[in-house]
Amino acid sequence: VQLQASGGGLVQPGGSLRLSCAASGNIFSILGMGWYRQAPGDQRELVASITDVSGTNYADSVKGRFTISRDNAENTVYLQMNNLKPEDTAVYYCNAWFVNYGLYWGQGTLVTVSS
After folding, report:
1. How far is CA 101 from CA 5, 49, 86, 105, in A?
2. What's the CA gap between 51 and 53, in Å, rounded?
């Protein structure tokens, strides 16, 4: 199995981006999915997570601005990011807990918020 993340880029402060992360391969079932980020010099931190029944959890710094969602039919998790701030600049990573494989990580996608 693999996770393919996309949607990063350069955006001005106050702008929006939508990240996607699609799982592929011999998938039986996916439990939790999530987004983490890592800025230069910082540790990787949780941004948002979503359970298999769409329960969500957000970092305080993104509450009210970011929305995580998933499409179980497409094995895809999304992160809608609104009102982006320079401090949101980081490499964003998705992960997923597969019932028959455990925890997998996708490759990172860079989000840069700058004027």
Report:
1. 19, 19, 36, 12
2. 5
